[in-house]
Amino acid sequence: MKRLLRKAISIKDSLREAAKTEIELLRAKKIDIEDLRTVCLTLGPYRNLTTLTAGIVALHPNCQALNHAGERIFNNKQLNFFSDYTDEKFDSFVRYAIYASGRGREGPYGGSVTYSHAFGNQHKLTEMYKSAYGDHLMKKKIHCLFWKESMAVSSYIRDHAVDLGNILSRNHKLRFLMPIRNPLDCAVSNVKFFGDTEQLDQFFMLQNRQNVLRKVLVAILDEFKSFLDWQKQYPDRFFYYFEHDFEKATLFSLADFLRVEPNENWCENSLEAFDMKSRYQHSEDIVDLYNKFVEEKFAAFPEASAKLLQFTNPVPQQT
Predict the structure, then answer these.
(1) Core-most of 51, 136, 162, 305, by most CB within 10 Å?
(2) Which residues of the chain have pLDDT under 70?
(3) What is the predicted pLDDT for the residue at 117?
(4) 222-250 tens-digit pLDDT
(5) Residue 144 in contact with residue 63, Cβ under 8 Å?
């Protein structure tokens, strides 16, 4: 009897959720996307400056940022444009993502980027957003939709062998971005955050639990190497920046990539909000491994290799 009752409750919950989704899809259809110029998705590992980047993008008056919501999107055939791509499906995704970004909650369910931990931990970011937009979560005129769901998107593309080249050839709005935090810090942060969970195994393709930190570090570098390979083929559709290189010129390049205006107020606020300091100390062994991996994996990308090595061999600042 109890089992039947639980099953009945589960069916009822599923039906309620399905009905809610249908209502949301109907409401999303009313979203006007006539002014939209670009749709930018983050790629790469979590704990890699993607939330802070999304927060900075959200400060722009013509950018709308969606935080998470991957499960809602990937599991819906009407929204998952990576599967059997059509322009109609892409537009449905865009409208729904914009709709979802104007509401929602924190955590995997997702919604407005103002519910993300970047706003919870960064009082400056919160104050800047409220000063500019008050309690309004939706921008009046949207030129760029920014979706922050990096590792879920990367994993989906990899696990389903998505033909990105085909999609990019048919869709001129779609773009991909990857911030580059110190990969050693990123690896430690992911291991600490996910701990002994299936998510860590899934995201970083771990077959066993031996030398976890080393394997996570390799997976992170492989993600960046894959991104560089794509950027080499589609230089206008893939953008990355390094944590230690974030400056006004970076914001101008980002604005150009997203096809929005780099207004002065946005640049000033973004530079003030971007306050990153390394909190980790790394053993000589893992630093030596990192240097070796970088030199081997990025031999074909000398500029990126030099930037990656700056994390362990900082360039002395000129006085």
Answers:
(1) 51
(2) 1-18, 121-122, 315-319
(3) 82
(4) 999 999 999 999 999 999 999 999 999 99
(5) yes
The answer to the question of residue 133 being in a domain is: yes
Angle among Cα 88, 93, 96 to the nearest 5 degrees reads: 125
Q: Which two tokens stand for residue 224?
A: 């960046």
Query: Is 311 among the domain residues?
Result: no
Number of domains the chain is built from: 1
- Say which residues have a Cβ less than 8 Å from residue 161's Cβ, sequence separation at least 6: none
β-strand 238-242 against 174-180: which pairing, if any?
parallel
Residues near 259 by Cβ (< 8 Å), separated by ≥ 6?
37, 38, 143, 144
Residue at 45: amino acid letter = P
Q: Looking at residue 5, what is its pLDDT?
A: 52
Separation CA 51–CA 115 (nearest Å): 11
pTM of the model: 0.92
Angle at 203 between CA 199 and CA 116, to 5 degrees: 70
Distance between CA atoms of residues 48 and 177, nearest Å: 12
Q: Which domain holds residue 134?
A: 24-182+225-279
